[in-house]
Specification:
The complex is a heterodimer of chains A (about 240) and B (about 1000). Chain A is α+β, with helices and mostly antiparallel strands and about 240 residues long. Chain A contains eight helices and four strands. Chain B contains 28 helices and 26 strands. The chains are: A alpha+beta (about 240), B alpha+beta (about 1000). Chains A and B meet through helix 3, helix 4 and helix 6 of A and strand 9, strand 10, helix 13, helix 20 and helix 23 of B.
């Protein structure tokens, strides 16, 4: 199935995970969103194994060490050109963009979750044939690097990372609270933790995204969720 | 817009507005004299100034501000050669009559030399480079090691426009910078003023002073330093905080904590969330991780490392300190004016890209460098001074900021009573809170549930993970019952349990990663050894072949292998380069050997931490390690060379599991939430994130505790006490009581249970050079009758989580190195070293009140005085045992007055040098510390009345065979 949508700015349609009932054109990049809930009826072509994941997912320091710069950062033989394999922003620990990688991750989670749950068509650069796989791989890297913080925030349904995500998604404090209440003790919370349990690859990143998207949609309703997805997709696309 | 760009743009605008009014003596021929504005150029007749030179100088000098070129100066072109650095000799450059002498230079450098010479003369007259605010920028200091000549702390070449200037003086630093800035032909962010923005700001201010009320037409809008403006984002900068990461005994480098700056930024809603902030701090540049470098402490202390400024998202620092290392972050807000804030950002920007300093663990560390950085953004008269004589630990430096005052009288730093608690700390709070909730749940549940609940709760409190998982599973049907306690208690229990278990899950992952990391390095080393052996055989085989190329290749490979295997980094680097040169031929002659050689280079660079060194050689890694440019390094074809499969070895172990108890808890939560309306139940969430709105009551409590704590760290302590000592025989006092004065001083002294605004947490004690000397009258003059010195002491009794593995052995530890002497005991010096454990018997309020048991092992070597009947030097091996009690006095949250008692005994074995083989020392000491001030002053000494009463028994002393008992009473004032 395809969607005949001519994107602006020479973007072309290259990936469609699942078709929804309604389509919405969002943003100058020409993102097309399929936004009717066909939960679970998607194929998943974003999980192509973990071979594309970073060999130094731990490249960020695991030990602040106070007086050391290299600290525990012993994986030195990083790939020759990390931009070939990593979504910009997710591995740049010295980013000047005020936590851009955190923002990006929030959008990636929502977009991936939306693509799996309700179906999303991503319009990407002509040179990029696997946008969602790349997004999933980069999200997996982010999840590995921030596993401890993410586990905590999911387990207690709140914390600095989820707060940052909520802000990036443009959620009000009331909406953030709604999601936290919906998440606490829910099956989605269990699914989120399950996705964090084990070697994290694109498939787990996708599972995580589905669960997060599910609880968000349940807490905020379909209309609001559609808006979130549009916003997140735009952010993700800019990052790519 | 930033002021720097404005300044320089103004300068440049003057350039184009300036009228070249110099009268040129002759248009087309060399001349001996000409003038430009206030400047007169002369030259010996035989040399003269050519037309081209005159044009060049005029066009160049026209770009300087009028205030500079209007000054009456005579520039004389000498024929003498320049010194080796190419700059005119300072002693010849200027004369008191304003005459400047140039040296013979390359014609292309003439304009630059003239400009620098003019600026040099201007600075000599105005003394800009003598100002403290200029010298602070690159840390120019006069030091004995440089023969009392100024030298810069900043050793980064990028910090200076001209290395020759940097090597000379602050004046040449200024002159070379000013010349470069004023003559800069670049545009936008490429300009030197956008790189060394602090220096540019200084220059702008000085030039403004030269032209007050300037009436010339206003310059066009200057091009801003957009990169800086975008980075600084001053419009959204909420405030700047000093962050102290709590000291940790995990590594020596963390013993005194870490100080960093946090730049807090507002979002669109006006909040300043954690993730928008940035952390800025100085860190040592080490090429080998500390844990793999046995000499790192030595290197750190003696200045082998350099330090640079590192900036990263605050959330990364949060993750490292708060989540992974379990260290609280305490916060102080820096009170800065708008201008100071801008200057500080300019300093950070400048130092971040042009700052490198020698690092000394005690004297010039992350904290002192940060103080220098902040000071350089403040008016010189408001600079913060360094504490300490020999050392300046981070926590002690903070107190100087609290005691320093801004221009409007506020403290330079104000405590923010919302610390960011470590996840480990939050887990402890949750654990404690959970126990209270468990009791309530049991009380409010039907009696027939009591036993099951009690059993399950006891299981979830155990250190064993599987037992906890079983406990949570058992709780699921119990907590799901509507009559099992109040919903709010159930919610609280589940929430606290999640807080606790998520932390323990992370700890388990970290431990697993550490184990896997050790195994990985062992495998790496083993693989390198195998590859080396195989390649040596390969090289010998090649060398044995009849053709010349193979023989030569074999010899070259062997040579490269020897270098790569060497322990010296420089030699290894040579080996990698030799290998690079040989690889093309080796690949032709023996492709498999070439693949193995590449793999060896890769793995050895990983084992030996040579990657940065290799990267410093352009093209080296590309040539050796990247056979296929399009593939990542872990996809290169040679990774499977021979029998090796090295791919997995390249990946750092990353453990991303969720613990079984946390998963079991989650299942229980789902059951309970499905069965009962828990979603709306209120919960007390542990403080710890400044994003979360902290409860006002908790904020007030923390603020009270801060106000009631000792107002400074333990640095530079002093006490003066009147002393009365008496020696007792079996039944009565013998001789006259000894009366004297005890002088007590310490470079650093903090004790277990001390609650201080600055310094170590209450569970850590540190002593450096604490000495108590008894001055008594003897032989017609005052003498030191006794002394007791703790050269160094460290005690740590960190709180432990009952549910963690570490709680199985909840001991602290104690290390001390002491020296003592006593005329009464005929002891010149007794040197002892001891190590022991500390066991918490009872405590309250983070050790403010406590009862501890101690034990350990101590060795002592005694050196008798002339009064001793024997000349032997006894060696003692003792087992010190003790009981320590401490009780806080005064209102709640006040920690400045307390009582303490210590009972101690040390059975001792004397294997040599004494007439006895065993001995016993025992005693008791009581102290009361009563604060004399009603309200402490932040950062200042806090006086207290100290009353100390002690009794000490020793069955053996060097003075004679009889046992000795001494009673002492000391009363005086201490400054803490």
């Amino acid at each position: 199935m395809t969607a005949a949508c001519k994107p602006r700015n020479s973007w072309r349609l290259t990936s469609m995970v699942v078709a929804g009932v309604s389509l919405a054109l969002v943003g100058p990049g020409g993102l097309v969103l399929a936004s009717d809930g066909k939960s679970g009826s998607q194929s998943n072509n974003s999980s192509q194994g973990s071979g594309d994941s970073s060999n130094n997912s731990n490249a960020s320091s695991k030990n602040s060490n106070d007086s050391s710069k290299s600290s525990n950062n012993s994986t030195q033989n990083s790939p020759k050109n990390s931009s070939d394999w990593s979504t910009q922003g997710t591995t740049d620990q010295t980013s000047k963009s005020h936590g851009a990688h955190v923002f990006w991750a929030a959008s990636a989670v929502v977009v991936l979750g939306a693509s799996a749950v309700v179906g999303t068509i991503l319009v990407v650069r002509a040179t990029d044939d696997h946008p969602q796989q790349r997004t999933a791989a980069a999200l997996a890297t982010f999840m590995r690097q921030n596993h401890a913080l993410l586990t905590h925030d999911v387990a207690v349904a709140g914390g600095p990372l989820l707060d940052a995500w909520a802000r990036d998604l443009g959620l009000s404090s009331v909406e953030k609270r709604q999601i936290a209440v919906a998440m606490e003790g829910s099956s989605e919370q269990g699914a989120l933790l399950a996705a964090l349990d084990g070697a994290i690859d694109e498939r787990r990143a996708q599972s995580f995204s589905i669960a997060f998207f599910g609880v968000t949609a349940r807490a905020l309703g379909p209309a609001r969720t559609q808006g979130l997805v549009a916003r997140a997709a735009s952010t993700t696309q800019r990052a790519q | 817009m930033n002021g720097v760009a404005a300044a320089v743009a103004a300068t440049f605008s003057l350039t184009f507005l300036a009228t070249v009014d110099g009268s040129v003596a002759a248009a087309n021929e060399a001349t001996t004299t000409f003038a430009f504005r206030g400047l007169t150029f002369t030259s010996p007749a035989r040399a003269g100034w050519s037309v081209a030179e005159r044009d060049l100088l005029q066009s160049t000098l026209a770009r300087l501000p009028d205030a500079i070129t209007d000054r009456p100066l005579t520039i004389e072109r000498d024929d003498s050669p320049c010194p080796p650095d190419g700059l005119p000799a300072e002693r010849l450059l200027t004369e008191t009559n304003g005459r400047i002498h140039l040296c013979r230079t390359d014609p292309s450098l003439l304009a630059q030399q003239v400009t620098q010479a003019v600026l040099y003369a201007v600075d000599a007259a105005l003394g800009w480079s003598e100002r403290a605010d200029w010298r602070r920028l690159n840390g120019w200091r006069v030091s004995p090691t440089n023969l009392w000549r100024p030298s810069p702390d900043n050793i980064a070449p990028e910090a200076f426009v001209d290395a020759r200037g940097a090597a000379r003086s602050p004046r040449w630093d200024l002159v070379t910078f000013a010349a470069a800035a004023l003559l800069d032909q670049n545009s936008g962010d490429e300009r030197i003023v956008c790189r060394l923005i602090s220096q540019a700001e200084f220059l702008r201010a000085r030039l403004d002073e030269l032209t007050p009320g300037q009436t010339s037409p206003p310059p066009p809008p200057p091009p801003a330093c957009q990169a800086f403006d975008q980075w600084a984002d001053l419009d959204n900068l909420e405030d700047v905080e000093l962050i102290l990461a709590a000291p940790s005994s995990a590594m020596v480098g963390s013993l005194f904590g870490h100080l960093l700056l946090r730049l807090r930024y507002r979002d669109d809603r006006g909040d300043a969330p954690t993730d928008l902030g940035r952390a800025v701090g100085f860190l040592a540049d080490n090429d080998v991780p500390f844990q793999d470098d046995p000499a790192y402490a030595f290197k750190g202390i003696f200045g082998v490392y350099s330090a640079t400024l590192l900036e990263r998202p605050f959330l990364v620092s949060y993750r490292d300190y708060v989540v992974l290392e379990g260290r609280d972050l305490r916060r102080w807000r820096l009170n800065l004016s708008t201008v100071e804030r801008q200057r500080l950002l300019q300093r950070i920007w400048t130092v971040r890209q042009a700052g490198r300093y020698r690092y000394f663990f005690f004297a010039r560390n992350c904290a002192t460098l940060l103080v220098d950085l902040i000071n350089s953004a403040l008016p010189p008269e408001e600079a913060t001074t360094m504490p300490g004589v020999l050392a300046a630990p981070p926590s002690s430096i903070l107190e100087r900021f609290e005691s320093a005052r801004t221009a409007d009288g506020r403290p330079r730093a104000t405590y923010v009573p919302e610390p960011i608690l470590a996840f480990e700390h939050r887990a402890r709070l949750a654990s404690r809170r959970r126990r209270d909730v468990e009791e309530r749940l049991i009380e409010r549940s039907p009696p027939h549930l009591t036993r099951a609940l009690t059993t399950a709760f006891s299981q979830v409190g155990l250190p064993d993970a599987s037992a906890r998982a079983t406990g949570y599973a058992a709780l699921a049907p119990l907590l799901a019952r509507a009559d099992a306690g109040a919903a709010s208690d159930v919610y609280q229990f589940l929430h606290d349990s999640a807080e606790l278990e998520s932390h323990l899950s992370t700890v388990a992952n970290l431990e697993a990663e550490e184990r896997a990391g050790t195994i990985r390095r062992q495998r790496l080393k083993a693989t390198v050894s195998r590859l080396l052996a195989t390649l040596r055989a390969d090289s010998q085989a090649l060398a044995a072949l009849p053709d010349g190329a193979s023989r030569e290749c074999g010899r070259a490979l062997n040579h490269a292998l020897a270098a790569i295997a060497d322990g010296k980094p420089a030699l290894r680097l040579t080996g990698y380069q030799d290998l690079r040169d040989e690889l093309p031929r080796l690949a032709r002659l023996a492709p498999e050997s070439a693949a193995r050689a590449r793999l060896l280079a890769l793995l050895q660079s990983e084992v030996r931490y040579d990657v940065a060194r290799m990267k410093a050689v352009p093209g080296l890694r590309d040539a050796v390690l990247f056979v296929d440019d399009d593939k990542r390094i872990d996809e290169q074809p040679y990774l499977t060379a021979g029998d090796e499969d090295a791919g997995p070895l390249l990946a750092l172990p990353t453990e991303t599991r969720v613990s079984a108890p946390l998963l079991a808890l989650q299942r229980t939560k789902q059951v309970a939430f499905a069965a009962r309306p828990l979603q709306t139940a209120p919960a007390t969430v542990a403080s710890g994130g400044d994003d979360a709105a902290a409860e006002p009551a908790e904020v007030a409590r923390v603020a009270r505790a801060y106000a009631g704590a000792l107002p400074r760290s333990g640095i530079d302590q002093l006490a003066v006490l009147a002393a009365v000592n008496g020696r007792l025989s079996t039944a009565a006092m013998t001789g006259q009581p000894q009366v004297g004065l005890i002088m007590v001083g310490a470079l650093y002294d903090e004790r277990l249970g001390d609650h201080r605004r600055f310094g170590f947490p209450s569970h850590t004690a540190m002593v450096v050079a604490r000495s108590a000397a008894l001055l008594a009258w003897g032989a017609g003059r005052p003498t030191i009758a006794a002394y007791d010195t703790r050269l160094i002491g460290y005690r740590s009794l960190p709180p432990s989580l009952p549910e963690s593995d570490g709680h199985r052995f909840p001991f602290g530890w104690d290390l001390a190195l002491d020296a003592r002497g006593s005329d009464a005991q005929a002891l010149n010096a007794g040197l002892s070293a001891g190590y022991g454990f500390i066991l918490r018997l009872w405590d309250r309020n983070d050790l403010a009140d406590h009862l501890l048991a101690t034990g350990g092992l101590a060795y002592e070597a005694d050196f008798p005085s002339a009064a001793a009947p024997r000349r032997d030097r006894p060696q003692q091996l003792g087992v010190p045992l003790g009981l320590e009690f401490r009780r806080r006095l005064g209102p709640a949250d006040s920690h400045r007055s307390y009582l303490s008692t210590r009972l101690h005994a040390r059975p001792t074995w004397l294997p040599a040098g004494a007439p006895v083989r065993t001995a016993l020392q025992a005693g008791a000491a009581f102290e009361s510390h009563l604060a004399l001030r009603a309200t402490p002053v932040g950062g200042s000494h806090d006086p207290a009345l100290l009353v100390a009463l002690g009794v000490f028994y020793s069955s053996f002393t060097l003075a004679g065979p009889a046992a000795s008992t001494t009673v002492s009473l000391n009363v005086g004032v201490e400054l803490r």
